[in-house]
Amino acid sequence: MSRSAIRRWLTSPLAWDLLLGVLVAIWSALFLRLFWPGRVNVDIANQYLQATEKIPYSDWHPPVMSAVWRILIDITGDPGSLLLLQIGLLAAAAWGIGVLVHRSGAPRWVSLLGPTIMVTPWVVSQMTTLWKDTQMAVAILLAVVLIMITRFVPKTWLLWLPALVLLVYAVGVRKNAVFAVVPIAVYGGWCLMHLWRNRRGRSGVSATTGSESPETSESTASSAKKGRPLLLTAASSLIVLLIIAAGVKVTDAAIASQVEVEKTGQISQILLDDVMFSVPDAELKKSGAPKELTDHISSARDKCLEMGEIWDAYWNCYGKGESGRAFSPLAYQDELKQLWLDEVVSHPLRYVEYRTAVFSYYFFTSGLEYWPAEWKGEAEKAGFEPGDPKGDYIFKPYVEDFALGTFPMLFKPWFWALVAVVLLGLGYRSHRRGSGGSGSVRTRSFWPEITALAASALCYIFGYFPIVPANHFRYTFWPALALTAAVVLAIAMWRRRPDTTKNGSAHGRSDPDRDAATPPGSASSKSES
């Protein structure tokens, strides 16, 4: 290649995309080096023992994570393979966001914010540990990025298959992920509706070429615009949700066909909290429930209140399950459920007061923002290598002393809920402005993705109202990750010109850095924006 050809290639969009990939790969390799094979707590240790077949499978934690972990161990022979999967999913999503931002016409420095998602303190804090919450979050984010690609890049509809697999995995590893997935499914349904309408429009144009007058073609296009986009979006969204639900059912059935999964009735842990902390002692004893159950609840409540705890009674004061072992089923589960129906559901105001108190504590506080290597007891009990503690000397001050100490709101649900509301407001304003647009060709818009991510984060936060068991930051990780990505996309929208011609220039001016990006294609029509 000539020197000028080499120079052109080095300044080409492809070269910049590769540079973004190199940055993501370097950071991933460094992170894996410092935190291999991943941090483990009691929940993760239990799933690891299931994955290695040292204990039977149970449904206290969704068994799909243990099953995936078992497959990875069979392939690689290393329990750290789950950390590799976790980092790999996030790396692919961060790189994809950087490339999409770059190719949308934003300055190159903005595209660097895609890989930067991986180094933010609230992301670093959770990626060290093999939480099912983290697995869920990175799976959803990569699914959104894959759907984005199908929206912007022609003939990439096959990426819907891994996107759906990732969404099925997200709901499989954490059942309340359904709150986060519903807005994503609506976004996916909207994308499918637009893909179908655009393809139908292209087919109509092709069919009328040489056989119909311009007036007829214009009439066809006008009638297409008078369709029912809301109905089509709702139908498409429902199809996406049904596919995800069916995928979860099929996955659970496939696992159950291979291994016996013990039924533990984990939902009774939430029912126990509701009964213990919302039903007065006098009514509890008059309820007609077995005396052994009501006495146990009454004595455990006194113990919890002395500890200053009004939730998570199973772990804090009840003594765990019937056998006293962690994750063992509660005794009198049927009687507890009937007690909940009789004394909790029948007093909705009392129930709402209790759940409001619990949710308020979760919403305005946070805990367990970082899992240090020194908390390695459960890992050692499970025979899981605790890993090198040197990573803590680098990242624990960054997360706890710098970020948490200086900007504590970054780890609080209320902050991310506020960010979500602001982004939704900006998205609505953009929609109102776009609905009366002038008809000029516009750059591809990220507002549908920003809206979907913000709505998903908000739904997930408030979806914890009836079930929140603690104020751990891992329960807020998906909103933090989703809104970080949404903010990057919003900055990309803000830093580029709103209206461009087909060759990428705006108002007769040119910008070498912007022009280096690939100009919008046919997928960035005004209606799709």
TrEMBL record:
It comes from the Bacteria. The chain crosses the membrane at residues 14-36, 82-102, 109-128, 134-150, 157-172, 178-196, 230-248, 413-429, 450-469, 475-494. The keyword Transmembrane helix applies. Residues 499-529 are annotated as: Disordered. Keywords: Membrane, Transmembrane, Transmembrane helix. This is Glycosyltransferase RgtA/B/C/D-like domain-containing protein. It comes from Brevibacterium epidermidis.
